[in-house]
Amino acid sequence: MSKKPKEKLSSDLQFFLANLLILPGLGSVLQGKKSGYIQMGLSLLGLIFSGLFLLYLLRIFHQGELQEKLRLWAGPGGLHEWLTDPYCRLGWLGVFLFFTSWLWSMVVSRPKNEKEEAV
């Protein structure tokens, strides 16, 4: 009888780790929660947007413009450049979407201890 709660906690822990380490939302989907699909969509969209920003950085690096861009972004008015450059906006949006889905999935799929299950 004491083995069942440990097995349940173990499977909850597996769902929790799948959410945090593999893809946010995956553990929720495995638990049968429909919100996991939205979490996965947000996290994938965030990864795509962040990846596009990284491709932009690679492109300007290969064109030899990275040093100039970094000087522009770090200099006076650099924050304005970060906020007006469409690729930077896309990168920040991607990080925000992924982080939001990661936090959401962490809250939804966190393992419950025995005291919470009794209530």
Question: How would you explain this protein's 3D organization?
Answer:
- With 119 residues, the protein is mostly helical.
- The protein has helices at residues 3-22, 26-30, 35-62, 66-74, 78-84, 86-108, 114-118.
- Helix 3 runs antiparallel to helix 6.
- It starts with a helix and ends with a helix.
First and last CA, distance = 19 Å
Low-confidence stretches at least 5 residues in length (pLDDT < 50)?
none
Question: For the CA atoms, what is the radius of gyration?
Answer: 20 Å
Portion of residues in helices?
over 70%
Number of helices: 7
Largest sheet at a glance?
none
Shape: elongated
The pLDDT mean sits at: 79
> Beta fraction of the residues?
under 5%
| Structural class based on helices, strands and sheet pairing | mainly alpha
Number of strands: 0
How are helices and strands ordered from N to C?
HHHHHHH
What attributes characterize this protein structure?
single chain; 119 residues; 7 helices; elongated
Summarize it.
This protein is mainly alpha-helical and 119 residues long.
How do the strands and helices of this protein lay out in sequence?
Blueprint: H1 3-22, H2 26-30, H3 35-62, H4 66-74, H5 78-84, H6 86-108, H7 114-118
Helix pairs in contact: 3-6, 4-5
